[in-house]
Design brief:
3 helices, about 35% helix, about 5% strand, elongated, mainly alpha, three-stranded mixed beta sheet, about 130 residues
Length: about 130
């Protein structure tokens, strides 16, 4: 992507820096390796297929996210027809917590993706 990146310099486009030998400083990048990217891509494709199949099967549960006071309902164009009511026991928000991916969390996250893909019959895992 960054055709102007030179050895010993950092990229203006990507968060990475090349060592003098041309390899990437792992501690100074948030980029994924090709294997990690393939794992994430495969996971996303499988999850997309799963969601599409659920929609095709008529599974369209109403379960908007909530992060603190912010909810998916805040700007939703379908509020008038949705009928989501958080005061009802059957209607629940999906609480979301977001964390920065430290190197440890990133490693655990990748392990979780790989375990999930291994359980999937259709997955092809590139590591």
């Amino acid at each position: 992507m960054d055709n102007d990146l030179q050895v010993g310099m950092s990229s203006d486009i990507l968060k990475l820096e090349l060592k003098k030998d041309g390899s990437i400083y792992e501690s100074r990048t948030t980029s994924m390796s090709p294997g990690e990217f393939d794992t994430v891509r495969t996971f996303v494709m499988n999850k997309s297929r799963e969601i599409c199949q659920d929609i095709y099967d008529g599974k369209i549960d109403i379960s908007p996210f909530r992060k603190g006071a912010l909810t998916a309902c805040t700007y939703c164009e379908y509020k008038s027809v949705c009928q989501f009511d958080p005061s009802m026991k059957t209607d629940k928000y999906r609480d979301r917590r977001y964390h920065l991916l430290t190197s440890q969390r990133r490693a655990r996250w990748m392990e979780m993706l790989i375990r999930t893909l291994r359980r999937s019959r259709e997955a092809v895992i590139v590591t």
